[in-house]
């Protein structure tokens, strides 16, 4: 991501923050519409889950200019997601639901350049989460098996 894209994400996110609860509700509605099979993975209260999600996005957005500091936390998040039953393919669906929600929430402010910038920001985060998840799946116990196949 270049500096301009980081700014686009940060500026547009500021407009979402005041409507974060509604945006989160819209996001899950859209996510479950796109893939009803992920719904049972969410066992807790969806409103508090939405708050955790927007707070994590907020941390990522604030730190976009220097992600190194939050990489370990994002890796941990990725590893926890394996335990929630999240699979690599789910990341595309969640990305689509996120972009859709931002478009609904921001309207005309969600320009093609802003969309592109958000797509990159999401891909970066999702990439770090998935890489950590894949590494933890290929831990010491599964290594010998992997070597024979
Ligand atoms: C950039 C991508 C994502 C971010 C920032 C994110 C963020 C979070 C956060 C902060 C939590 C709270 C629990 C924790 O910290 O461990 C959480 C839980 C969860 N996330 Fe994600 N997530 C992402 C992608 C996904 C994807 C792709 C799925 C697939 C459907 C997913 C499904 C879940 C589920 C099922 C839970 C647990 C909910 C529960 O216990 O009720 N997340 N996520």
Give structural notes.
By secondary structure, the protein is mostly helical. It contains 7 helices and no strands. The chain has helices spanning 3-16, 20-34, 46-62, 71-83, 90-106, 112-137, 143-148. α2 crosses α3 (46-62), α2 (20-34) packs across α5 (90-106) and α5 (90-106) packs antiparallel against α6. The termini are far apart.
Brief rundown of the structure:
This protein has helices at residues 3-16, 20-34, 46-62, 71-83, 90-106, 112-137, 143-148. By secondary structure, it is mainly α.
Chain-wise SSE layout:
Elements: H1 3-16, H2 20-34, H3 46-62, H4 71-83, H5 90-106, H6 112-137, H7 143-148
Helix pairs in contact: 1-6, 2-3, 2-5, 4-6, 5-6
The structure holds protoporphyrin IX containing FE (HEM).
Protoporphyrin IX containing FE (HEM) binds at residues 38, 41-44, 49, 52-53, 56-57, 77, 80-81, 84, 86, 90-91, 94, 122, 125-126, 129.
Features:
binds protoporphyrin IX containing FE, single chain, 149 residues, mainly alpha, 7 helices
- The count of β-strands is 0
Shape: globular
Bound molecules: protoporphyrin IX containing FE
Radius of gyration: 16 Å
* Terminal-residue CA separation: 37 Å
Report the mean per-residue pLDDT as an integer: 93
Give the ordered list of helices and strands: HHHHHHH
Low-confidence sequence ranges: none
The helix count comes to 7
Which strand-content bin applies to the residues? Answer: under 5%
Helical content band:
over 70%
- Largest sheet, described in full? none
Give the helix/strand class: mainly alpha
